TrEMBL record:
<protein>
    <recommendedName>
        <fullName>Casein kinase II subunit beta</fullName>
    </recommendedName>
</protein>
<comment type="subunit">
    <text>Tetramer of two alpha and two beta subunits.</text>
</comment>
<comment type="subunit">
    <text>Tetramer composed of two alpha chains, one beta chain and one beta' chain.</text>
</comment>
<dbReference type="InterPro" id="IPR000704">
    <property type="entry name" value="Casein_kinase_II_reg-sub"/>
</dbReference>
<dbReference type="Pfam" id="PF01214">
    <property type="entry name" value="CK_II_beta"/>
</dbReference>
<dbReference type="GO" id="GO:0006359">
    <property type="term" value="P:regulation of transcription by RNA polymerase III"/>
</dbReference>
<dbReference type="InterPro" id="IPR016149">
    <property type="entry name" value="Casein_kin_II_reg-sub_N"/>
</dbReference>
<feature type="region of interest" description="Disordered">
    <location>
        <begin position="231"/>
        <end position="269"/>
    </location>
</feature>
<dbReference type="InterPro" id="IPR035991">
    <property type="entry name" value="Casein_kinase_II_beta-like"/>
</dbReference>
<comment type="function">
    <text>Regulatory subunit of casein kinase II/CK2. As part of the kinase complex regulates the basal catalytic activity of the alpha subunit a constitutively active serine/threonine-protein kinase that phosphorylates a large number of substrates containing acidic residues C-terminal to the phosphorylated serine or threonine.</text>
</comment>
<dbReference type="GO" id="GO:0019887">
    <property type="term" value="F:protein kinase regulator activity"/>
</dbReference>
<comment type="similarity">
    <text>Belongs to the casein kinase 2 subunit beta family.</text>
</comment>
<dbReference type="GO" id="GO:0005737">
    <property type="term" value="C:cytoplasm"/>
</dbReference>
<dbReference type="GO" id="GO:0005956">
    <property type="term" value="C:protein kinase CK2 complex"/>
</dbReference>
<feature type="compositionally biased region" description="Acidic residues">
    <location>
        <begin position="231"/>
        <end position="243"/>
    </location>
</feature>
<dbReference type="GO" id="GO:0034456">
    <property type="term" value="C:UTP-C complex"/>
</dbReference>
Length: 269
């Protein structure tokens, strides 16, 4: 304990990433591997985006060694968080990053869909822009394919660019079996049991459009992923073995859903 100062310094800067991901409000982030952070190639272009770049990087990689006053220290700390976020967006679309985020998704670390018909399906973080300071992070539900605001204000203030616009789509491209069946259930407003006219007309229109979509998909030999689940089947988050082994769709439209292989839809061609 004779060299008290340097001892506390090194303690303070140890395991910055560990501290960061376990801090309150940072639950959406996974821990970036040291190997990834120390490979300069992965950080290309970030030196112009982050002030005090080198100090921030040193802090994130636990080699920070500067006798800075509190003001400067705070600036560097802020830069480090920004740098971590920007690298995070790149890291989570790598194989390792996807696997880490998948674990968090399975534990519903990002929350559950607030839509009643989604039966509490797990959400994924999504950005509406890939550039920082444009918009805050939103949550994507793969079941209803819509995005929602985070409940907690701590999460609602996180920059969306720290997750990016493509992460959730890439996750389901890499793990297609995890993409849930789309639900055709929807809420129908009623007045004393009678359907409200405008809403009923809209529902009929949506039904017609869906049937049209299904037949167009069938024409080009694409297996649609709608299921008839008017009864709650309580399978909000069971996509494990059954799916992976290619369980067939419940055949309700004979001739349409029956024969096509349960191949996931290819996006982008
Ligand atoms: Zn949903």
């Amino acid at each position: 304990m004779e060299d008290f100062n340097s001892e506390t310094d090194s303690d303070y800067t140890s395991y910055w990433r560990d501290w960061f991901v376990s801090s309150r409000g940072n639950e959406y982030f996974c821990e970036i591997d040291e190997d990834y952070l120390t490979d300069r190639f992965n950080l290309t272009g970030l030196n112009t985006e982050v002030s005090y770049y080198q100090y921030a990087l040193d802090l994130v990689t636990d080699v920070f060694d500067l006798d800075a006053d509190d003001d400067l220290r705070e600036q560097i700390e802020k830069s480090a968080r920004h740098l971590y976020g920007l690298v995070h967006a790149r890291y989570i679309v790598t194989t390792r990053g996807l696997a880490k985020m998948l674990e968090k998704y399975k534990k519903s670390d990002f929350g559950k869909c607030p839509r009643v018909m989604c039966d509490g399906h797990a959400l994924l973080p999504v950005g509406q822009a890939d550039l920082p300071n444009m918009s805050t992070v939103k949550l994507y539900c793969p079941k209803c394919e819509d995005i929602y605001n985070p409940k907690s204000s701590r999460h609602a203030s996180i920059d969306g660019a720290y997750f990016g616009t493509s992460f959730h789509s890439i996750l389901f491209q890499v793990y297609p079996a995890l993409n849930p069946e789309k639900s055709s259930r929807r809420y129908e407003p009623r007045i004393y049991g009678f359907k409200v006219h405008a809403a009923a007309a809209l529902a009929r229109y949506q039904d017609m459009e869906r049937e049209d979509l299904k037949s167009r998909l069938a024409e080009v030999d694409i297996q649609h992923r709608f299921i008839e689940d008017s009864e709650s089947d309580g399978d909000a988050f069971e996509y494990d073995e059954d799916y992976a082994e290619g369980r067939t769709e419940p055949a309700k439209n004979q001739g349409q859903a029956g024969d096509a292989a349960s191949a996931p839809m290819e996006i982008g061609n």
